[in-house]
Amino acid sequence: MKxxxxxxxxxxxxxxxxxxxxxxxxMHVAPGEPVVVGQEFNPxxxxxxxxxxxxxxxxxxxxxxxxxxxxxxxxxxxxxxSFAADHRPVLDKVVERLPITIWINVLAMAxxxxxxxxxxxxxxxxxxxxFDRGMTVFVFIxxxxxxxxxxxxxxxxxxxxxxWLPISGxxxxxxxxxxxxxxxxxxxxxxxLPVFVSAIGGLAGMSRFMRSGMLEVIRSDYITxxxxxxxxxxxxxxxxxxxxxxxxxxxxxxxxxxGLIGGSVIVEQLFSIPGMGxxxxxxxxxxxxxxxxxxxxxxxxxxxxxxxxxxxxxxWADPRIRHGGKS
Amino acid sequence: xxxxxxxxxxxAVLAVLAPWIAPFDPxxxxxxxxxxxxxxxxxxxxxxxxxxxxxxxxxxxxxxxxVGFVAVGIAIAIGVMLGATAGYAGGRLDxxxxxxxxMVLCFPTFFLILAVIAFLEPSIWNIMIVIGLTSWMGVARLxxxxxxxxxxxxxxxxxxSLGVPALRMVWRYLLPNAMGPILVSAVLGIAGAVLIESGLxxxxxxxxxxxxxxxxxxxxxxxxxxxxxxxxxxxxxAILITVLGYNLLGEGLRDALDPRLRDTH
Lengths: 327, 265
Known about the structure:
The structure holds two protein chains of two kinds. By secondary structure, chain A is mainly alpha-helical. Chain A has twelve helices and no strands. Chain B is mostly helical.
């Protein structure tokens, strides 16, 4: 296990470099000096800002030197300062916004697991039943539905028509006066719709994946053997088949991280949730380049970490990976 | 698959014929018609400037499909080029190309697109290019895998021993054998591109007003969510149906082209 872990960690290093190179490339897609382009008339950026940025990126130096300098700063988590009036370091701004985004995504993932696994298993076990057919329709709609539209419809139904749930922000205006439990309930109410909207795409994908995984396992030789030995069908399905069908789900968990993080921009904008996605959106609109670059790099690193966690979980669950050496 | 094809064809015809079938000029502002709810005259109501939503949606279909097709065209071109090079050349070049693919895959796609948009002006052309540039990875992997599996088949060895040059080899003999999966991922890719475009336009970073797009009509819908449900409802439904159509068509093609998969669905 230790060896596997070390190997995985070593494999991450070139990817980290790649992330920084691509991010650096994005900064230079715009013709001319990235700092100055389109900023002449931007009232939010003063001449002082531009000079500070020039110094930060060393724009008078050759490209490879610029990259190297930038990399050195990244290594000590120095992402520069925001263009916004407060001129705060990018890292501080991101760190204070990150927890709520991670929370929503973790909750969305938990929700996906709790719902998609039973759906997938039941669909596979009762293949071609009305339940299976209904779920297939649901899966196709789940794939095709634009999350922001679903969000709007839910806001209209539960927020505007029924007035059951709040439709923006994460706290009520009188949050500070509430007791502890009341505060938690308030937060939960605010997060319900965003978490559901974040989860819908993954929910469809995961249940589909679970279904085909389960179908495949049920057809394998050891299940036939178990049947031939006369084990009850329930034991076969839920003790022997389910365990193996669950394994690939862990990989999917890692693969769904970038989608969830990327989707947080739309969900947070829609529900006015002060997370990293909304911060990023604001930065893009304001052309706050240091913030845009910082969040792009951090988003990619988070994805990488998500993949790593999934791989570790997979190795922990499946001895073939741990000992086999082949990935 | 048949249903998918029907939806795809209908939306395409509506988009192409938009100038002839739209009951109103999509950009004509009329102060007497502000926020009318759906009626016999205005099937999908009117927006905050009194423009006919149904006409705007017809023109929006053109935008969405144009973005979908061009973006996927770019993605397929890049993906096929890189994937074919990696799969046919093998060795170090293969390892390098696949490493780069892994790196790009580390970025949440939507973040990557937004980051690029931040440095460019949001316009329909830039969006096509950016979506294309950020969605070639799947195709590259797929083409590489197909070529790797074809690489040592007899007909390839035969052609090789006859001295067929590499480029001709890939173009004439290998890629045609990989057409099926490429086509499937192109069709599914259009669905994805339509979703991304509408998302970007919804955020105000895609197609810019006054040009109509399903996404930017929805932005108005969000701003008027308390009073005008039709502004949100119809454009979203159009996106849902279009994306559903392309997905159904794609899945259907996959099953038709690869009978091995049928059993797992």
